[in-house]
Design goal:
Two copies of one chain form a homodimer. With about 350 residues, chain A is of the alpha/beta class. The first copy, chain A, folds into three domains: about 50 residues, 434 Repressor (Amino-terminal Domain) (Orthogonal Bundle), CATH 1.10.260.40; about 130 residues, Rossmann fold, CATH 3.40.50.2300; about 130 residues, Rossmann fold (3-Layer(aba) Sandwich), CATH 3.40.50. Chain A is about 40% helix and about 15% strand. Chain A contains twelve helices and twelve strands. A six-stranded parallel sheet of chain A has the order 2-1-3-4-5-11, sandwiched between helices. A four-stranded parallel sheet of chain A has the order 7-6-8-9, with helices on both faces. A two-stranded antiparallel sheet of chain A has the order 10-12. In chain A, α9 crosses α10. Chain A is elongated and about 85 Å long. At the A-B interface, α4, α5, β2, α6 and α9 of A face α4, α5, β2, α6 and α9 of B. Chain B binds a DNA duplex (30 and 30 nucleotides) through α2 and α4.
Chain lengths: ~350, ~350
DNA sequence: CAATTCTGCTAAAACGCTTGATCAAGCTCT
DNA sequence: AGAGCTTGATCAAGCGTTTTAGCAGAATTG
């Protein structure tokens, strides 16, 4: 039995639950109109700063005062009802927190949306198809201006049927079929850039530790590597391409094989592999960048910027992906009819590469 | 002057911009009612599965068929207008993408909100006070059920005035003044747990590398360390507490000092410092966990799980923070009147700690 | 000075939905 | 047979805005 001592009127005891006072009903347009002694139409006109409207300065001021005094806030729901479409953009993501990647897409989308007066409505589906359908339904019911459908790693996807009931843009993924607008990172250019970092420091024998798992990134980054070599007139040597699982353990495990290749530099499929490789190299007494230069891919800040030495890498432009997705959705940026729009992957140079001393 | 060639009816050239066909007006309740030959009231009743309503099975079916045929979706804005309060919960964050932390708060909040039929409306303020005010205003206009105000690291904050116009809960931060509900990680317990990992493996001389910058975490984690030692009857030795900037470089730089202390184990303020420390230790030829045991704090997956050896640490429960925030907002979980509600920080044991061989 | 144009403001419909009040039938009781 | 239920459905008001058409009076014009 709970003691009855808590019946005291204002319990100030340590564990007393917070009493939330009921909120007053929000102030409406009508109340403002009454307070200012004008019609609701007038108030609306003032609130929305309609240029065309003819309202005397006197009235205008009275209305504004009333608004301030009452603390009026327009009811966006009512506005939306009238206008037919909300100032929402929906973002459905398959993994919000697994990596910082999705966070950056959200961030970019949110900033850009905000810039154009839109708010972001997000839903996390964890890859669950049913959740996804529900999430899209919810967004549709809220009459979103459009939906950004995003994945945390670059891949092909199929477009859920209900997505077609709204405007939508695929972000960080694409669909083979029908003209769905999409924006993805330019993996090929990224791979080229990564390789070029090494090239421009004089390296000629450059290994590439690719991922084992199939993905657009796997193909694109390899292709970029080839293009960069070719541009320098270096023949592609398939023997210099290794494959490993794209994480720290994979990079670590590839060390042995790598060293057999007698290269002066390595380009890793991603930063996590580079991190593992650092360990492998160090265990064998090899110094970065003096004994071997390393570049990664992804620019995962927590890792790349703080490795010893800091890792040169190529950025996956997730923020830009989100922002570009929004622009495309709003029709501010044109989509290509035939293929996903590719976003540039910028180079980030740190200290894991050094000019090769002439032999 | 733009060339007129684009006037061709359907440009099919490779770079032709995608023509978006105008969307048909969404189907309304009224249209469904007409199609089914009933009143809108009836349709509303069956859509909302009102138990009390008396609708014959025949009618019910006709309505449902019409709904399906027309592809009707309720207009949530209209519903909200009527009901007065939306199914939105707002989340304002000061840094969505800087760390994975905010992502996890969002994730937890979104999952929990969804579970109760709410959608998450998010805004990123980047710490900008003006943006913050705008974001909150927007949420108020959308008549959110309440607002979660979150910070990416645990700290004191002051509550923006406009926040008080709505229900709100502070997440990962707290306010000294007035009874604002808040939920924060239990830093003390976390510090205790971290130390206990070491203790239970037989370590007695345990160093603590604390942060230099003041924060609830700094005090709490230290206090937890003291409590754990005390519980084991080990006198606190201030000489075993170092301080460094809480990142990789800080941890690396602390190595030297640490080794002068002649300890068998270290507890680092966070995983990033531990990562730096790994490098420092390795450079000096010391092996983890054999020569020295290490535990971190935060459980930053990308780092902790993939260091060599994987790092034992304590989790910062960001997901739970977000989820608990939502529950508290919805009144499903009681807030304490006097202090922020503290969320448990779970231990994550990996391989950076080994039982100390008896001397 | 009458005709016209401006100026400042309002009335009222519409947006899509919910819900309490109401109603017409068909039943079941005495 | 009439009173009283029950059943199945409709009516209509109202939620808080926006916006078009229109109106009264003042100012300008010829």
């Amino acid at each position: 039995m709970i003691s009855q001592e808590n019946n005291s009127v204002t319990p100030l005891g340590a564990a007393a639950p917070l009493e939330r006072p009921p909120r007053p009903q929000p102030v409406t347009l009508r109340q403002v109109a009454e307070a200012a002694g004008v019609s609701t139409a007038t108030v609306s006109l003032v609130v929305n700063k309609k240029k065309a409207a003819r309202i005397s300065d006197k009235t205008r001021k009275r209305v504004r005062d009333a608004i301030r005094d009452l603390g009026y806030r327009p009811n966006a729901m009512a506005q939306t009802l009238v206008s037919g479409s909300s100032r929402f953009i929906g973002l459905v993501a398959d993994a919000i927190a697994t990596t910082p990647f999705a966070g950056q897409i959200i961030h970019g989308a949110q900033d850009e949306a905000w810039k154009h007066g839109y708010a972001l409505l997000i839903a996390n589906t964890e890859g669950n198809r049913e959740l996804e359908t529900d999430a899209i339904a919810m967004m549709l019911e809220y009459k979103v201006r459009g939906i950004l459908y995003s994945t945390w790693f670059h891949r092909a996807t199929d477009v859920p049927a209900s997505l077609r009931e709204s405007d939508f843009v695929l972000v960080n993924c694409f669909s083979a079929e029908s003209g769905a607008r999409a924006v993805v990172p330019d993996e090929i250019q990224g791979g080229r850039s990564a390789t070029e970092i090494l090239l421009k420091h004089g390296h000629r024998r450059i290994a590439f530790i690719n991922a084992t798992i199939p993905a657009p990134a796997k193909d694109g980054r390899l292709q970029g590597y080839k293009e960069a070599l070719e541009a320098e007139g270096i023949p592609f040597d398939a023997g210099l391409v290794l494959e490993a699982y794209p994480d720290q353990e994979g990079g670590y495990g590839a060390t042995e094989e790598l060293l057999k290749r007698d290269v002066t530099a390595v380009y890793c499929y991603n930063d996590r592999m580079a991190m593992g490789l650092y360990d492998g190299l160090r265990e064998r007494g090899l110094a970065i960048p003096d004994d071997i230069a390393v570049v990664g891919f992804d620019n995962q800040e927590v890792i790349a910027a703080h490795l010893r030495p800091p890792l040169s890498t190529v950025s996956l432009p997730h923020y830009e992906l989100g922002a570009a997705g929004v622009r495309m959705l709003l029709g501010l940026e044109e989509a290509q009819a035939t293929a996903p729009t590719k976003i540039y992957c910028p180079t980030v140079e740190r200290n894991s590469v050094r000019a090769l001393a002439p032999a």
